[in-house]
Design brief:
Order of helices and strands of chain A: HHHHHHHHHHH
Oligomer: homodimer
CATH superfamily of the largest domain in chain A: Tetracycline Repressor, domain 2
Number of strands of chain A: 0
Distance between the termini of chain A: 61 Å
Shape of chain A: elongated
Number of domains of chain A: 2
Radius of gyration of chain A: 21 Å
DNA sequence: ACCGGCATGTTGACAATGTCTACATACAGG
DNA sequence: CCTGTATGTAGACATTGTCAACATGCCGGT
């Protein structure tokens, strides 16, 4: 017997409960979906409400305004990214192999949620909210861990760890953004720009 | 005898000419100004028109829609960035010194026009317009030049030039974005993250 | 020197949006 | 069981992007 999802029930004109029951999550999911569809966060709250099957001002019972919705979406993005990268770091490997695997996963994440990624790190909109939020900071600590282990193994030069981690993050973030925006055109940046750039950085990291 | 600027004349209620005469540029300037003020491109066309002293739909005679205005603004941004970096590359220096000077100028540019910089490279809005536009591509060629010269001097490893240039750009862009968004907090990324990151990359570039 | 076309501006209208206030419903705890 | 509070709804407001119809005046051909 098929179970009707609340989100579908709420779309019915008749016979639908006054209360949604899980609106907050429905809003987050719908918004996430629309960010994918429209490749940006220019979706309207009213359309989100429409899709969730509630009135146009219902979302305001869960988020004071659109910005705060975007802030929460960004934090969810950080959670997801963290989870993916943590998984990629789990099985042991040489520093180089681990670095490249993480890089791949990182780029893949951004490729899967381009708008979300831009919202998280390049919107200039959620700065205050994400500033120092542990959920946003956690991922960077994974990079620090990776470098530290690399140094312990003698694979990475003995420079300040957090500086090296910052270098990795910047490199990865820069590559990702340029990739997302379509600036990595072979005629301009060569055949395999990502590999080339990562390699260049690795040569600066490795002993 | 003081000369009245057209933009001011147009703001007068009375005695103002029917035609602005330089509206297109006035719009671009005003929009640029508002991007600075509001740190984003969420300004309204109507406010731009108001400030320029014209009716709310006058801008549509010069730009089909807001997106196309943003596209032009981004291209102007590329022009300005190119000019600054070209100037920074003029006087001769060692590869390392030149690289660091360019990096400084690059970061300064982004710091001076944060919203514009984000619009240029991280908006996901102007991709098609800027895609392959020579005005947008020109700056990258400067990086290629710099690397080529570095290789000729024997300061840079003999790897494919455009890949190395891509690495530089990615690193610089990543650092810039993280800086703009306020993610470079000392407790997280160490004391001088920019210097550290640039150094790490340099060690991967240099022979 | 005239005149007509075309680029440039203006006015008014439309559908949509974010957000507010007043009101409705029903769940949960005493 | 009953009431307060969390959650939804309905309607209103100012504002926006954009369009169409109309106004103005500069510029080139006669």
């Amino acid at each position: 017997m098929p179970v009707k999802k609340i989100v579908d029930v709420m779309k019915e004109k008749q016979n639908r409960p006054y209360h949604h029951g899980d609106l907050r999550n429905a809003i987050l999911d719908t918004a996430m979906e629309m960010m994918l569809e429209e490749d940006g966060w220019n979706f309207t709250l009213r359309e989100v409400a429409r899709r969730a099957g509630v009135s146009h001002s219902a979302p305001y019972k869960h988020f004071p305004d659109k910005m705060s919705l975007l802030g929460e979406l960004a934090l969810i993005g950080f959670d997801r990214a963290y989870e993916r990268i943590r998984a990629a770091m789990e099985e042991p490997a040489t520093f180089r192999a681990k670095f490249l695997r993480v890089a791949k996963v990182y780029l893949q994440f951004a490729h899967d949620h381009p708008a979300l990624y831009r919202l998280m790190l390049g919107s200039g909109v959620v700065t205050e909210q994400t500033q120092g939020d542990p959920r946003a900071a956690a991922t960077f600590e994974l990079a620090v861990e990776m470098i530290e282990q690399g140094q312990r193994e003698g694979a990475v030069r003995p420079h300040p760890v957090r500086g090296q981690a910052a270098a990795c993050w910047a490199q990865l973030h820069g590559l990702t953004m340029l990739d997302l925006e379509g600036f990595l055109i072979p005629e301009k940046v060569g055949e395999k720009p990502v590999e080339a750039a990562l390699n260049t950085l690795l040569e600066g990291l490795e002993e």
